[in-house]
Amino acid sequence: MRIPAHSVCTAIRDDIVSGVLEQGSRLTEEQLARRYGVSRVPVREALRTLESEGFVLTRRHAGAHVAEPTEQEAADLLDMRALLEPLGAARAAQRRTDAHLKVLRGLVRLGQERARRGQGEDLRSLGGWFHETLAQASGSPPLTALLTQLRHKIAWMYAVGQPERPMETWAEHGAIVDAVARGDAERARALTALHVERSTPLHRLKRPERGRVRVSQHVVNTTSARN
Q: Over the stretch 115-131, which tens digit does the pLDDT of each residue have?
């Protein structure tokens, strides 16, 4: 069975973001094929995709390596987020479906409930799903793809602390959804811009940990991995 390249790409990207594959480490098709239990063909396609996304850098005579972004490149990501997330929210107010709205409201209810209980890890996941759904509600595949790639890169380069008042954070999410539901694009844009501005100080640049052994959680082809 041929394993789709996008599945291999997702596994490699996740291991780069989590630090299993460290910045600057060499990536060979043979090594990655063994790691994920696949052939070299989907690995080759995945590396091309990851290079176009900025996670992988191919050097002449040196092959593929995990990219090593500069501090300026990392700072630029937060600036891009401050521009694109409000745009996505404005588009969502104009183009969202009832299904998007139902999911967004459900996530806000769950987030508020978890915030009251102090369940921080759940809040992190719910916040990611909220922003992913809001991006999808924009009705713009190119914008959604950019926002998704931004989230991956920010998670790769930054550790994000929990807000001191999570209930206020989820109240902000709820206000954004209300604006989206009313079709008020400018209010959705303004509220999202304020939300991004307030969350930016929680981001702390990660320092790569050299030499630490980490275990990948991804095996794309479990049959090959067992044999």
A: 988 766 678 889 999 99
| Among 124, 61, 58, 138, CA closest to 94 | 138
Structure tokens at 176: 């954004």
Select the more confidently predicted residue: 16 or 213: 16
Residue owning tokens 């967004």: 104
**Percentage above 90 pLDDT, the chain:** 76
Alpha carbons 197 and 23: distance in angstroms, whole number: 28
Beta strands in 35-119 (DSSP E): 56-59, 63-66
Task: Give the number of other Cβ atoms within 10 Å of residue 100's Cβ.
Answer: 20
Identify whether the C-beta of residue 108 lies closer than 8 Å to the C-beta of residue 173.
yes
CB 169 within 8 A of CB 201: no
Q: Is the pLDDT of residue 3 over 70?
A: no
Going from the C-alpha of 163 to that of each of 19, 129, 170, 199, the distances in angstroms are 24, 17, 10, 8
Cβ neighbours of residue 78 closer than 8 Å, sequence gap 6 or more: 154, 200, 203
DSSP class of residue 4? Answer: P
User: Which helix (H) or strand (E) covers residue 227, if one does?
Assistant: none
Give the gyration radius of the chain's Cα atoms: 19
- The b-or-e profile of 65-96 (16+ CB within 10 A means b, else e) is bbbebeeeebeebbebbeebbbbbbbbbbeeb
